[in-house]
Design goal:
The chain has 1698 residues and is α/β, with parallel strands linked by helices. The chain is built from 52 helices and 62 strands. Strand 25 and strand 26 form a beta hairpin. Helix 9 (207-215) crosses helix 11, helix 11 (243-259) packs across helix 37 and helix 37 crosses helix 39 (1120-1134).
Length: 1698
């Protein structure tokens, strides 16, 4: 593959694609955009990375001779072994040899080297050698000696193939010197039994399966017993273990070591280069520290093995003097100075610190190197660039004699960006500021108050509009230009030459108002119909700062939705939904189309290469969101299908120069598609009638699609054949009709006297108008015809050619020669032709001196004549164009279709075409036949994923869009190209994804698309070298999270009860009992007290080396392990509560629908609906029972389910997810499933009416699954809470709680009707189309509240301050496992809190006249009787940090600081965007209180470090300063200039992002400079932490003499409630035994003192009069019931009292 040719074609296509999407009328703006494109700043030169060669470490034979390996290794480790050949000796790299040497010492070690460095041999060789030595020394015992853990099954599969070559080849079956088996969950049951019966020496597995092996009794008894004294534990891809997953693996390693009694274990880690921070010494130390923390055993810095590189060339690179290529032979090549020079530029350089050869610290482009080479050899830089490319290609074709891999293996790393919108100041066309760099104000001195507003452009004429939001008397910038439905959203129209008139009368007289809006009043004067008056523009004068003010720029304000263009007068009847189809912008049409273009270009170019085999012609593409992968696959498939149809039409027209008519158009286009029968047939084996009917179904569908494609601009992002000049639609006999004078005698004089050619133009324009609104008399645009097409498609066609079951009929409109107010509408798109309309105005322009009445008469006459001549058919009093009158002809491609009515083109060549799409249809479309994409994500079923992997590997599936599921270990040797739909979260992710291509050493291309508006994408587009160079930080692990430790203690307990859990939960619970209790044998095993004792003892051993760190947390105490083990049985039972609820609900639903079906009084429609709902309920029950599945990755596999509920370790599975039920598609009843999301994501993605993208379709959330006790009742099970208005702190609504526990503020109103979201149900909407650029996100107003969870007497928070010297700067309050609640208050700009819901069905309802698109009338809340308004919420535990400044600051400064600190933390600690979120909290004193949340379960431990490490906050502040364009040392403004334009207040390179765009007007980097500078020099002293024992001991001592008080105190301590402030306090009127904060007196009665003076009811009354609250604990009362009544006094226990 010529990677440079593929790259050249990619850039050519991408440049053409971006160049002409949006028409721009204004010359200054057009020049600005043209200059930007000419500069190529959207496709900078690609970086070229040459894979270096590794220094040799000798052959295995050499190591045997040196007695580093036993002799048998010489026979085992050979390359190319077969039955009749011993193969060749295996040569090792130096880092592999070093691993062997360290392994011999018995020490643990880590290998961090680049891709393709043979990392697996660094542990396989030592392990095999150690086992062979055991045998040689006579001390070998059967059993597992080594466990190798892989993060993905594909890596284990790949390793099995490698071990087969070494350990089986040459020995024969059953005679392997060392045995090995894979045990990952993919194995069949018989294979599992074999492994358990005869455990191997080496076990290859993944971390989830290893956890199951530790937990499930059968495997534990076999494999863990066989692994007693385990010697080797290997973690492959060490750098991937971050966050909760990494912490879980670290705990798993400790459990394995304890269970296997592995006192002399050697732990080995392999990784891509894990960290590039600091010197080599510090890098090794950092890796050693990370590995030690992960393994729980010390790893010395000296035992961190890095790569040792060598030059493959031998010449001196400084001796290059010419550009001649060497002979294509190894010896000549490596001795060539030019080859040596290229290697020195792109492959290896000398490290100045150590003198060693290393990879270049910064990647280079060919252009940069060529410029340098040109100076050395005195040649033209372009010639030098060509020479560099040629030497690289030559090096890629020559094998290295030692490694047999290409001498030069390289990748091109291309970053692409669509660029940002055009932003304008609110000034006249001549004076306004124009930029493409998003900022909020003009970055020029003296104009800092001039706001910048994004421009949108009319898709018909290119007129620019300023996209704004009106707030009172001020306009602000609005980025969400596709949002409509709020009168505050709108657009400003500014035109000096063509201003909007001051009055409606003048606008009508000047023909500026759409024709369909004008009616004739009773007095005969024209006016705007009442329904349209609110959409008329309003003239305003606007100052540059956005305020409406006298003396400002004159503008017309158009409130959204955009209804007509004020320049070309194109009007739109649709007033709901998006303005996307009406107005374009340079950034909106982006990611999906760009990715589809990139994908199709790469694959198409690979297909054109005759030297490539089928498996090599494919593309692997990544995105970081599962729904984005689904959206992109659907977008690509639709894109390809539309291109194929248009290309086929073009080719058919080429074959028929005289044109095609309705009778043959579908047949000829179908033939030109060149599809094989298997491409579209449901049954490819069909013959005879079935085969003929299948072809007929395809022809009918093609016919329907062709007619739809005639509609004006229906596919916004893909101009059709007419728009690209490739199709001309003519009309039968039109020249003859125009020339026949007898037809025109007796009609209006203007027509009668016109020349025939002028009449023809008028007629053609009229007929074009009918055709472009689809006013065509054709069967497929009628309901019967459409139904027939749909039915035949359902019976015979398959995706992507089958029609969607949810697709609706498109009716053909009717053209009426009258105004629209005179009759009923059959279609909202019916065409009304009058003298006031667009066509009437066209006639008046063509015939000066005529009146509107004249124009109307001419329209009637032309329609009548063409009807008489057979071109039109009458429909009532209207007309339609006959399909038989159309003649489809090939266009000349010189200009687009002319729209004489709406658009005047000044140039003679006609409307501009989009050359990219023209070439795509003419030259490239045929090469897309058979091309289809699929998604590969965790929400796709396992068996389907596996099938797609195989199809992709073989090249049968040529485009695969995947989430990070394919990031690791998928060794696809024939993969030449990788595309990234977004910039990956970290350089480590980028390295892994890029590393999928070119793994055999062939040249490879990596393309990354960087979307505008996304700070992460744009930052790395500007700093792409950091991503390519792999500036990777070592993973950070928080091993002090209580939920984490709890889940592993639970796993230890589950292993100790020795209960084998069935794969189906229905075999663990008694589903025949109403409450679904544990089955008797399960309950008995769970209640075993000895198991609790054993589990506690094991947990103590596992956690022994972590106790010191745990003691400084807010939740740990000395008895924690014992109590966790004691609580495990109750927690185990409670973990099934969610399943019980889901199962009970599905059962009730099935029975209710069954009742409806059996009720003979039920209507047919209701019965059919009940049948569907019953089937869905049965499918849900089947999913919940997990029948016939041993796959441990299914949601309801028992152990996986317990992990998702947080009872067992979750690893990469989300804990306590929300689930969405995806119903089966019509006719595919088996395709049902639940998909899940983490709660805080799901509150938005699964909100009312939200869209979910899955497997090429869009689903809409329409229901909440109600519990049976809620269905049909009068209301739902909701709760109440209060959020402090002064600090955002969360309080449950408890009587007597009126003061905030956090800030002592008075609590405000109670928030009622809170509904916890659990499971939602969806309905399928439609197939994803290529018009969908980004996922449509429902806009919700979400509110976050939080609460620190006290851990008994220890507060669940750590309070600290950042200080500089003695001066405090910032307050910090950290809480681990704090409660965070996210509440969905309603849709954006809601008028009342919450959403209406049908309490009988759980269906979400719309309010009357709600602006929600596509809602059925039955969803109208006013039509439903049993309804309730609820507020959905979710909550979970997270690590949080609350920061607060020491003095009052402005709102702008507070929010700017919050985002600056968030960006600094993310950058310093290399967190992904999704790992940390922030939100400004209320603060009465205006001190900028902000909440930071570690979003991943268990967290990354970063927020804790900010309060526990003195310099962590300072480091984050320094990084924030750098990001905000300030010098870290001095605070001097560095400007952040891009293209000589400085950053004024904030930009996407610093503090702005897509996620915080609501606050862009407020963010100002200058407001935070001083505080960040001070914080960069600050320290955070470690906060003091008191132990529970220290707190309880004096309380216990004081209560010793009072037995009832002592007993109550002991109970409070055991169950981890709060301790009292004081005991036996004399309050004057009484002496209670305990006093709690907030003036709470607690009386603890003895056997006979309850009514004693000073503690009787009179004493209580007196205390209450003094403002005290009183709690009484009766003698021998139920402590648990008492304390639960007063959570504000005693707190809440994490332990459930039994």
């Amino acid at each position: 593959m010529d990677v440079f040719k593929v790259h050249e074609q990619l850039i050519a296509d991408y440049a053409a694609f971006t160049a002409g999407f949006t028409e721009i009328e204004d010359e200054r703006i057009k020049k600005h955009v043209r200059d930007r494109l000419a500069a190529g700043d959207q496709w900078p030169d690609p970086y070229l990375a040459l894979n270096p060669n590794f220094e040799p470490g000798g052959s295995v034979d050499d190591l045997v001779q040196q007695q580093l390996l036993v002799a048998e290794c010489e026979r085992i480790f050979r390359v190319g072994k077969s039955g009749d050949s011993a193969g060749q000796v295996l040569n090792l790299h130096r880092h592999q040899r070093e691993a062997v040497e360290i392994a011999r010492s018995g020490a643990s070690y880590v290998l961090t080297t680049g891709t393709g460095s043979g990392k697996s041999l660094s542990y396989i060789v030592p392990i095999v050698d150690w086992i062979l030595r055991q045998k040689a020394e006579g001390v070998y015992q059967s059993g597992v000696k080594a466990i190798i853990v892989y993060p993905m099954n594909a890596l284990a599969n790949s390793q099995v193939h490698e071990l087969d070559k070494f350990l089986k080849e040459g020995y024969g079956p059953g005679r392997e010197p060392v045995t090995f088996r894979r045990y990952t969950g993919q194995e069949k049951m018989d294979e599992r039994r074999q492994i358990l019966a005869d455990p191997p020496d080496i076990l290859l597995t993944n971390y989830v399966m290893l956890d199951l092996v530790l937990t499930r009794p059968g495997e534990r008894d076999s494999l863990i017993t066989a692994a007693r004294g385990l010697r080797w534990l290997v973690l492959d891809e060490l750098h991937t273990y971050r966050g909760r997953q990494g912490a879980d693996v670290a705990m798993l390693v400790r459990r394995v070591r304890e269970a296997c009694e592995a006192a002399e274990i050697q732990c080995v880690g392999t990784s891509a280069t894990m960290t590039t921070e600091g010197s080599e010494h510090s890098r090794r130390a950092k890796v050693a520290e990370t590995a030690s923390r992960l393994f729980g055993v010390p790893v010395s810095r000296a035992h961190v093995i890095g790569e040792t590189l060598e030059r493959v060339t031998t010449a001196d690179p400084t001796h290059v003097t010419r550009l001649e290529l060497p002979e294509p032979e190894y010896g000549s090549f490596i001795a060539d100075p030019l080859a040596a020079w290229v290697e020195a530029q792109f492959g290896v350089v000398t490290d100045q610190e150590t003198g060693k050869l290393v990879r270049p610290p910064r990647p280079r482009t060919v252009a940069e190197a060529a410029a340098e080479l040109a100076e050395s050899v005195n040649e033209d830089p372009e010639d030098c660039a060509i020479a560099i490319q040629e030497i690289l290609k030559l090096g890629a074709s020559i094998p290295h004699p030692r490694t047999q891999r290409p001498v030069f293996a390289f990748r091109l790393h291309q970053f692409l960006s669509k660029g940002d919108d055009v932003y304008l100041s609110i000034e006249s066309e001549a004076d306004r500021y124009i930029t493409s760099r998003y900022q909020t104000v003009v970055p020029e001195p003296g104009r800092e108050d001039h706001i910048l507003v994004p421009a949108s452009f009319c898709r018909e004429c290119g007129q620019e509009y300023l996209t704004v939001r009106r707030v009172d008397e001020r306009f602000t910038s609005r980025r969400d230009s596709d949002t409509t439905g709020d009168e505050k959203d709108g657009y400003l129209y500014i035109s000096t030459d063509f201003p909007w008139p001051d009055t409606v009368e003048v606008a009508i007289d000047d023909q500026r108002v759409p024709e369909s809006w004008v009616e004739t009043r009773k007095d005969g004067s024209p006016g705007v119909i009442s329904a349209k008056q609110k959409y008329l523009p309003k003239v305003v004068t606007v100052a540059p700062n956005g305020h409406i003010a006298d003396g400002g720029t004159r503008a017309a304000y158009i409130a959204a939705p955009f209804t007509f263009c004020l320049a070309c007068r194109t009007s739109y009847e649709q007033v709901r939904g998006s303005d996307f189809a009406k107005l374009g912008s340079l950034a909106v049409e982006g990611r999906s189309s760009a990715t589809s273009v990139i994908s199709s270009t790469v694959v198409r170019t690979l297909r054109e290469d005759a030297n490539l085999e089928r498996p090599e012609r494919k593309l692997l593409a990544f995105t970081d969101n599962r729904q984005d992968a689904s959206l992109q696959a659907g977008h690509f498939n639709d894109f390809v299908q539309v291109v194929q149809l248009r290309g086929a039409l073009y080719r058919a027209l080429q074959d028929y120069p005289d044109g095609l008519t309705h009778e043959v158009i579908a047949q000829k286009v179908t033939e030109s598609l060149n599809l094989s029968f298997a491409d579209f047939a449901q049954k490819p084996e069909a013959r005879f009638s079935a085969e003929r009917n299948t072809w007929k179904a395809l022809r009918q569908l093609v016919n329907y699609r062709l007619y739809l494609d005639l509609e004006r601009g229906w596919r916004i992002t893909m101009p059709n054949l007419e728009q690209t000049g490739l199709l001309t639609v003519d009309y039968l006999d039109l020249p003859e009709i125009a020339a026949a004078q007898d037809l025109w005698d007796g009609v209006h004089y203007a027509l009668r006297d016109d020349a025939p050619e002028l009449r023809e133009e008028l007629l053609r324009t009229l007929l074009d108008e009918l055709r472009r609104v689809l006013a065509i008399d054709v069967d497929c645009l009628t309901e019967p015809g459409f139904v027939q097409i749909k039915e035949e498609s359902r019976h015979y066609l398959k995706d992507p050619w089958a029609m969607e079951p949810t697709e609706n009929v498109v009716y053909a409109p009717v053209a009426y020669p009258r105004a629209g107010s005179h009759g009923g509408l059959r279609s909202s798109k019916d065409l009304y032709l009058t003298g006031f309309g667009a066509y009437g105005k066209y006639l008046l322009r063509e015939h000066s001196g005529l009146t509107r009445d004249d124009a109307h008469a001419m329209i009637r006459d032309m329609l009548a004549v063409t009807e008489r001549c057979g071109l039109l058919t009458m429909d009532r009093d209207g007309y339609q164009l006959k399909a038989s009158a159309l003649v489809w002809r090939l266009g000349d491609g010189k200009a687009g279709a002319v729209d004489r009515i709406r658009k005047h083109v000044a140039t003679e060549r006609g409307p501009r075409i989009n050359p990219f799409f023209q070439r795509l249809y003419t030259d490239k479309a045929a090469q897309l036949a058979g091309l289809q994409a699929r998604e590969h994500t965790a929400q796709v079923m396992n068996e389907v994923r596996a099938q797609r992997e195989e199809q992709f590997r073989a090249g049968d599936l040529q485009v695969l869009y995947c989430s990070p599921t394919m990031e690791l270990g998928i060794d696809i040797a024939s993969l030449n190209a990788v595309a990234l739909r977004n910039v990956p979260p970290t350089p480590a992710n980028y390295a892994q994804r890029a590393g999928r291509a070119g793994r055999s050493g062939q040249p490879a291309l990596v393309v990354t698309y960087c979307a505008s508006g996304y700070a992460h994408d744009q930052y790395y587009f500007r700093h792409r070298d950091q991503m390519v160079a792999g500036s990777v930080a070592a993973p950070r692990l928080d091993l002090t999270n209580e939920d984490l430790i709890s889940s592993h203690v639970n796993a230890i307990w589950l292993a100790e009860i020795q209960l084998p859990l069935d794969s189906s939960i229905s075999q663990i619970l008694d589903v025949d009992q109403p409450s679904f209790p544990l089955l008797p044998d399960v309950a008995a095993a769970a209640a075993n007290p000895q198991a609790q004792l054993r589990a506690a003892e094991r947990a103590r051993r596992v956690l022994a080396e972590r106790v010191r760190e745990l003691k400084i947390t807010s939740w740990w105490h000395d008895d924690w392990i014992d109590r966790a083990a004691q609580d495990a049985p109750a927690a185990f039972n409670a973990a099934f509560d969610r399943w019980r609820e889901l199962y009970r609900t599905a059962q009730a639903e099935r029975e209710e629908q069954h009742r409806i079906i059996g009720d003979h009084s039920t209507s047919k429609g209701a019965r059919e609906g009940a049948i569907i709902r019953r089937r869905e309920a049965e499918n849900q029950l089947k999913l919940l029972r997990n029948e016939d599945s041993e796959d441990f990755q299914t949601d309801f596999y028992s152990y996986r389910y317990l992990a998702s509920e947080g009872f067992l370790p979750g690893y990469s599975f989300p804990r306590l997810p929300l689930r969405a039920y995806i119903a089966a598609r019509k006719g595919k009843s088996t395709e049902v499933e639940f998909i899940h999301r983490p709660r805080f994501i799901a509150i938005r993605e699964f909100g009312p009416d939200a869209l979910i993208y899955h497997e090429g379709s869009r689903y809409q959330v329409k229901e909440v699954q109600l519990a049976p006790n809620e269905q049909g009742g009068g209301g739902l099970d909701t709760r109440s809470a209060r959020r402090c208005e002064f600090c955002g702190y969360l309080h449950e609504a408890v009587v007597g709680t009126d003061v905030c526990d956090s800030c002592n503020g008075i609590l405000g109103k109670t928030m009622n009707r809170l509904l916890r979201l659990q499971t939602v149900k969806t309905v399928r909407r439609d197939r994803i189309s290529s018009d969908e650029e980004e996922r449509r996100r429902a806009g919700y107003d979400v509110v976050t509240s939080y609460r620190f969870n006290d851990h008994g007497v220890r507060p669940g928070r750590l309070d600290a301050k950042a200080v500089r010297g003695a001066a405090p700067l910032l307050e910090l309050t950290y809480g681990d496992t704090a409660t965070v609640r996210v509440t969905n208050m309603g849709r954006k700009r809601h008028t009342s809190d919450g959403f209406w819901i049908n309490v009988q069905t759980g269906r979400w309802l719309s309010e009357k006249d709600a602006l929600t698109p596509d809602l059925h009338r039955l969803d109208d809340a006013s039509l439903v009787q049993a309804k309730q308004q609820v507020i959905p919420y979710v909550e979970d535990r997270r690590n949080i940090l609350v920061t607060r400044m020491l003095g009052s600051v402005s709102h702008e400064a507070a929010i700017s600081f919050m985002y600056a600190l968030e960006r600094g933390i993310e950058a310093e600690f290399q967190l992904e965007d999704s790992e940390l979120t922030s939100e400004l909290l209320p603060d009465e004193a205006h001190c900028g209180r902000a909440l930071f949340i570690e979003s991943s379960e268990g967290g990354a431990g970063v927020l804790r470090r900010l309060v526990m490490e003195p310099d962590a906050l300072a480091r984050a502040a320094r990084k924030a300063l750098e990001i905000a364009h300030f010098d870290v040392a001095t605070g001097e403004d560095t400007g952040g200039a891009v293209n000589n334009e400085r950053c004024a207040k904030a930009c996407y390179d610093c503090l702005l992002s897509f996620g915080n765009q609501a606050y862009h007007d407020l963010i100002d980097r200058h407001l935070v400079r001083d505080l960040l500078l001070a914080l960069s020099l600050s320290d955070v002293p470690e906060p003091p932490v008191a132990s529970p024992q220290d707190i309880w001991e004096p309380v216990r001592y004081a209560a010793e003499l009072n037995d009832p008080v002592h007993a109550f105190v002991a109970w409070l301590e055991e169950w981890e409630y709060r301790a009292p402030d004081e005991l036996s306090v004399d309050l004057g009127v009484a002496t209670p035994e305990m006093v709690y904060p907030g003036q709470v007196a607690v009386f603890v009665d003895g056997p006979d003192n309850g009514a004693s003076p000073g503690r009787d009811e009179d004493a209580e009354d007196e205390l209450r009069e003094l403002g005290w609250s009183v709690v009484r604990v009766p003698y021998r009362g139920d402590y648990a019931q008492i304390v639960k009544k007063y959570p504000s006094v005693f707190g809440t226990s994490r332990r459930e009292p039994r």
